[in-house]
Amino acid sequence: MEAYGPASSPLRQTNLNQRIPSQPLKKASGIGLGIPTIAMGLSLVIFLLGGLLYKKLRLGGSPLTRLAQVVVAAVKKRKMSLLDDSSKLYVNKELDATISVHGRLLHTDQFRWLYKAAVVTRKEEQVQKPNLWRLVTVHVVEELKSIIRMLPNIICCLLLRCVAAHFQTSVLNFFYFFVIVRVIK
């Protein structure tokens, strides 16, 4: 009857002091590390050359400030009636030049009450440069409306990430518990 254990295992019978030929190993590791290095270098060059194609804009202030200005202006004008004609809303290409490269966002019918922020009153008609906390351009209003339309997607992604993080920690906790129970036995 043969005894099975560390002394009689097949690994025990081989000579562990034999050297693996180092030349093929060096060549394989050189290829294995060289290909990703070359690919990374090539992607860096493409990235830097692609930067020349970008449109460069001067900073136009914080986008969060613009969004807050729309909300504040709409709340201040909440008692005003909404215009039927959207062509009478405030448009200023100089103000929008810092936030828009090629054009304007299209008008939508959702959240029409935000258009009250772009309605020009008699007092604002007389002023050359408007107070942006009382009157904003239609383009900025459309920016806020598009962000509001994206909120359900953002919330779903956050919830999904929270669930994934909880699952990962619970799996890790189970794994550590399993290891501790195995060690105690």
UniProtKB/TrEMBL annotation:
Similarity annotation: Belongs to the major facilitator superfamily. Proton-dependent oligopeptide transporter (POT/PTR) (TC 2.A.17) family.
InterPro entries with a match to the protein in the record: MFS_trans_sf, POT_fam
Location in or out of the cell: Membrane
Transmembrane residue ranges: 31-54, 158-184
GO CC terms, sorted: membrane
Keywords: Membrane, Transmembrane, Transmembrane helix
Membrane topology: Multi-pass membrane protein
Recorded GO MF terms: transmembrane transporter activity
Identification of the protein by name: Uncharacterized protein
